[in-house]
Amino acid sequence: MNKEEFNEGLLAFLDASPTPFHAVANMVEMLEKAGFKRLHEEYEWSLQANERYFITRNGSSLIAFGGAQGPLEVSGARMFGAHTDSPCLKIKPNPELLRKGYYQLGVEVYGGVLLNPWFDRELSLAGRVTYLSGAGEVKSTLINWERPIAMIPSLAIHLDREVNNSRSINPQKDLPAVLMQCRADSPPEFRGLLLEQVKQEHPELDAERVLDYELCLYDTQPANIHGLQKEFLSSARLDNLLSCYIGLQALLDAGSSQPCFLVFNDHEEVGSVSAEGAQGPFLRSVLLRIAEDEARLSQMISRSMMFSADNAHGVHPNYADRHDENHGPLLNSGPVIKVNSNQRYATNSITSSFYRRLSEELKLPYQVFVVRTDMACGSTIGPLTAAELGVKTLDIGVPQFAMHSIRETCGSADPLTLYEVSKLFFNTVTLPQA
């Protein structure tokens, strides 16, 4: 697969996945098209050798696996982990605000959002809606307006002359989004608007009343390739849907006979402490059901390895001093091995050496990132999964600009590079041992 072909699919996936729910739904469609069979946690499993399966939790986390030709406790598993959520603005439960004839929605900040870039963007709304059916059943569906319906306008510089010197953002006061104009004596009820959208998108559903929702605003500008030589790829939610797409495509294209797993967790951006987060029981419970007892699970884990894929901070040419001078990853110079001696990343010398060997076998580039010693280090699902399971883990990621912005940028060559190495990882017969 060439770079242009790979990136074309990536851009389409990013545009179609404004929320974790949509991302998982899109990946489920791709898995089912490839022959993967859905499992349900509430039912008994009857797993068949050489079949491929997937399971979701909450509609926002996903585990897929397959390829086993023998006991997992002998061969171990090749795991690729990433997260489905991204920092964003979520709609509050009672969001309606009516000011000066403008109908606004109150928002809650989800994760470590870089707030300034959210102003003056053409925004849309998407997520999950739970409704009461005509038969009195509580059901859920996904909605997505797709077109621009909201904006958070900036205050004119004439009304805040010091804005370029000392601007700070109060998320309670400054972030409510303008949705429409309406009369003060007849403001619409937000759940009523949602019901109209549900009926428009899903006329086959017998929805009578919206009970609740999990919705977020998102930028409607599509993902694209840019740069004078088409060096860059920009989109919302590169952190971390980029890694999800890379892992999924690598597994689908690997054709591996080795036991392989995709592990895509929600809620990484808020600490991963949830039923479907990396610090929750989802992955371990699935592995235990496959292994069937604790002893075999322990043996399997000891022979397994995980790629924890999450984007890395590429060195910004205007702020190069924010990086250690020997560890400033460049866009289009290869994926980044992420190292932190305080265990904010789970990489050790064994897992990093293994990645170096795979990459060098393919004659593909890689880089190393260590945060400046006088700065705090971020983290990933890697240390959480490693601590929960005891699995050997590598923290790896594509370098990017503007992490946690409404629009992020990576090199257009790096996603394909990580895809190629991950595909080789899925086909590797012998994994490293401590």
TrEMBL record:
SUPFAM superfamilies: Aminopeptidase/glucanase lid domain, Zn-dependent exopeptidases. It is an enzyme of class 3 (hydrolase). InterPro entries: Peptidase_M18, Peptidase_M18_dom2. Its cofactor is Zn(2+). The keyword Metal-binding applies. Pfam families: Peptidase_M18 (PF02127). Keywords: Aminopeptidase, Hydrolase, Metal-binding, Metalloprotease, Protease, Zinc. Its EC number is 3.4.11.-. GO terms for biological process: proteolysis. GO terms for molecular function: aminopeptidase activity; metallopeptidase activity; zinc ion binding. The keyword Hydrolase applies. GO terms for cellular component: cytoplasm. Belongs to the peptidase M18 family. PANTHER family: ASPARTYL AMINOPEPTIDASE. This is M18 family aminopeptidase. It comes from Hahella chejuensis (strain KCTC 2396).
